[in-house]
């Protein structure tokens, strides 16, 4: 019985939701669970994939793990871990690490890692500047790809210039270039990321050995107060709020406003209105190229595609500006606290050698850490949103040729199936006959739409398989918050105290308030002033709503998860990695969040309610 208590359900025991078997089978074979997978430990990656995955959207897992594994395993050669395998069932992505346990292999990989990673650390600024240029060039290449189209007849210039290539070839050429660019982007993404975590983790391990009583949160606060591009969109919204007050157009922004009406009214208002609109354009390009999710779902549209998120934040920011309140991120406070902590702990070290090592490690962490969040703006947001919009162009073309009803239906096909549909259209155009797709895809798309709805209602186990004795993959611990202690807590299902949830102490502060359980980006609008956000995961682009909420709680995440980092940067009390907060906390329930201890208390269930 003891062994059974230490195991989550086996992958083979997880049943496909009845009626969705064909939709499940349509995912690529290499992303399906096999009997051999019962021998491994897997966990649900709700941090990156909190909602059921449309079939095309699975490319976000596929391309990301191709790149992550390449850099872990064969480029930077991390000593104790290789890549991450992924599987999908009922639209949910489960992942499992591939550890290195042989001491001789670890020793050999360590020697390789030192040669490779140290070169990056020594030349970080130069290489990072090159990285930004690579990403901007990749974005420009994607923007330059033509919109797919098919003329009734080739222009006469095709023959008179000896071009020698017909229009249908451009369909497959452009599509493959889109996929190539997307896979390449993920390689750029992971070129620096694990090294950024590695520098922090080396400092983290030193602190744990030198200061046995130090908390994870205290160490993380030593790298707070960072400048990173991912925070810039929210700063631009604040700038627009200040400009609205300065230009005297602030009365147009309120909770009941219609965005198009506001834009039209400002255009008619005169010089000040048009000046604010020009300021909006300045902010939008490039800073509104962020989506409302974490960059893994086609329907998490960018702020540029849908201005709802930034405009929803404007009334609150404007109100605070008019009251003379500070709306900036508390950078001075964060930096002062950071420097004080670094200094205080340095004084506790006995030897000059330890102090020199400490100085070197914290110095490296400060140099490299901004990349850990900054890269997201270019990769998961700007490039990924551009990529999905380019795929929409194929959705529109195939819709116009009768393959399906709506542009968005394209995302119910895998990327292999979409290529086959494109080839079908190419063949039909070239032969002058009707394509076969219009008879094939509508029924399949309808079936997959129903599957997505059914999977959204299904309960998802947080993990699968036997709990490993040791979890030493630094990314899995720091990013996802998967530790042996946490897994044991999840397995106990709150037996110790059913009114408490435990997680990582992300940002200190004690807050009592109303829990607002938000299970998808679509529900963000339900948040009201003073609510405590309870979600599977959040990310930096939700920053504009942080002015409304008083605290945050997440299912997944470790002390270096994006939610934990963002909470610290905004001074928002938070507990991450609770396992099942979205399932155990009722919407509207009163709860207490203790961000310093990493504890969430369900107050409605207590015998005696405490005063706030």
From TrEMBL:
Residues passing through the membrane, by range: none
Pfam families cross-referenced by the UniProt entry: PEP-utilizers (PF00391)
InterPro entries, alphabetized: PEP-util_enz_mobile_dom, PEP_Utilizing_Enz, Phosphohistidine_dom_sf
Single GO MF annotation: transferase activity, transferring phosphorus-containing groups
Cited NCBIfam families: PRK08296.1-2, PRK08296.1-3, PRK08296.1-5
Name by which UniProt lists this protein: Chondramide synthase cmdD
The gene coding this protein: cmdD
